[in-house]
Specification:
The protein has 166 residues and is α/β, with parallel strands linked by helices. It has helices at 2-8, 14-22, 43-53, 66-73, 82-90, 107-113, 132-137, 153-162, and strands at 11-12, 31-36, 58-64, 97-101, 117-121, 141-145. It has a single domain (2-162), classed as HUPs (Rossmann fold, 3-Layer(aba) Sandwich), CATH 3.40.50.620. The chain has eight helices and six strands, in the order αβαβαβααβαβαβα. A six-stranded parallel sheet has the order 1-4-3-2-5-6.
């Protein structure tokens, strides 16, 4: 269980992160931030997050809470609860921290973290990215990453629904 605890230690609160930040444990490191629901972790997510990590020294993921996802995607989501989603993300070697947030958007989280780079999939534009104004104001970069075509949680859920149960 030592290995599992190592992953759980990567799941932190904003307050934990601010303490790490104020103790200069991240001084001179380029902080990359992205966010999402990551409801069913799949190849597209892993590819996207691995690419995001390559842009800096520290990859922080803002993870929508269960309540946040229900408000955004409806009463049947999320498929997996926030603790399971956070553990799966934290288990990825290139993820440094996972912070669960309750709001519908990560705006307040981004405002507090003040990342150097904000990354989303190329289904977003710079203008539509929540927090891009904060990152640009501090001289940071906004980056979009191409998504893996044909792979999404919605497609996976639809495939499961359409698969006959024997």
């Amino acid at each position: 269980m030592k290995s599992l605890q190592k992953f759980k230690n990567k799941i932190i609160t904003l307050e934990n992160y601010l303490s790490i930040q104020s103790n200069h444990n991240i001084e001179n490191k380029k902080v990359v931030f992205t966010n999402g629901c990551f409801d069913i972790l799949h190849q597209g997510h892993v590819d996207y997050l691995a690419q995001a990590a390559d842009y800096g020294d520290l990859l922080i993921i803002g993870l929508n809470s269960d309540d946040s996802i229900r408000r955004i995607k409806g009463k049947h989501r999320p498929i997996m609860d926030q603790n399971a989603r956070a553990i799966l993300l934290a288990a990825l070697v290139f993820v440094d921290y996972v912070i669960i947030f309750e709001e519908d958007t990560p705006y307040q989280l981004i405002q507090n973290i003040k990342p150097d780079i904000l990354i989303k999939g190329n289904d977003y534009t710079e203008e539509s990215m929540v927090g891009s104004d904060i990152v640009k104001a501090k001289g940071g970069k906004i980056i979009t990453i191409p998504l893996v075509p044909g792979i999404s949680t919605t497609h996976i859920v639809q495939k499961i629904k359409n698969t006959p149960h024997e």
